[in-house]
């Protein structure tokens, strides 16, 4: 066990470090770490777990002369263990740089998410095909990462069949959650979708309690009351309420809860980084989603809708589709990179703040009508989400 007590004075009296006042030239030292003899019944004089500090000034209080019986004056110095604060002080710059790095991650994550939601809503308003839009988002991200791996911009992950097997249920849940959220935003305002999606912690607790048998402290259950109450208040006062949009957000919540559960169970011991993990997740989700998107909507509907939208919007629709696809991958990639650097609690708080930025920015940009009661419900739900993250810790 590492001792935190100051070590006793060590007398260095051997021939290893002999300093005589009558010699003008110093005696050559054979070793700067002399052997320290133990007195009978005495434990180790010096802890090997902490660095020793030895005063460097002969005139300081840590040095005193010791009579050596005619052989001249020896020098005795006090050696002591460095305090933990002295050792950790050298790590301050690295800690500061880490905080700056995390701050940059968070700011980038929120900004990219806001931009994605804006362009995603623009595309869905002009070209209402959420299944194709979801597919294009995953396809763009998958293509970007494949090119990065092929060109050496990013190091390709080392995977095996067991990795993809454990990733499959995660990809299924991710695909459902992604499509359900996109369907929701095609029917209702972006702000309303994110207000309902702020209720995800409630789904997490309920699923973990009744399906996995986990129990939580009482404050966690109490934090669900403002979440559920706020979401309900925002829903009943929503001017443009749509049942498909509401159910899409609810299904997305449930799917992402299962995604997190499967991810925790299946990815234990895996050494794939956050960026590459999400890239593999996108590729597998794309393979799962593509046949369903073709079956639900189909190329004929996509082509006919595209011609109509281009005639009304013009070629800027191409830019909107490209932007929402690129920014979808980037914001998710940065969020997974953030999760590599921070605790799940900090990530949860960051996710809550992200929803606030998306809700506020979408209301301003799309001029979404908001009643005071509706805004109150959203605030209560978001506050409950924050309280949940604190109580969960």
Automatic annotation (TrEMBL):
Residues forming the Sugar phosphate transporter domain are 101-389
Family matches, as Pfam families: TPT
What keywords tag this UniProt record? Answer: Chloroplast, Membrane, Plastid, Transit peptide, Transmembrane, Transmembrane helix, Transport
Recorded hits in InterPro entries, A to Z, give: EmrE-like, Sugar_P_trans_dom, Tpt_PEP_transl, TPT_transporter
Recall the GO molecular function terms of this protein's record: organophosphate ester transmembrane transporter activity; phosphoglycerate transmembrane transporter activity
Cross-referenced SUPFAM superfamilies: Multidrug resistance efflux transporter EmrE
Q: Does the keyword Methyltransferase apply?
A: no
Q: Where would you find this protein in the cell?
A: Plastid, Chloroplast membrane
Cellular component terms per the entry's GO annotation: chloroplast membrane
Residue spans crossing the bilayer: 102-119, 131-154, 166-196, 216-236, 243-262, 274-296, 356-388
Membrane topology, as annotated, equals: Multi-pass membrane protein
Tell me what this protein is called. Sugar phosphate transporter domain-containing protein
Organism of origin: Vigna angularis var. angularis
Q: Which gene encodes it?
A: Vigan.05G260500
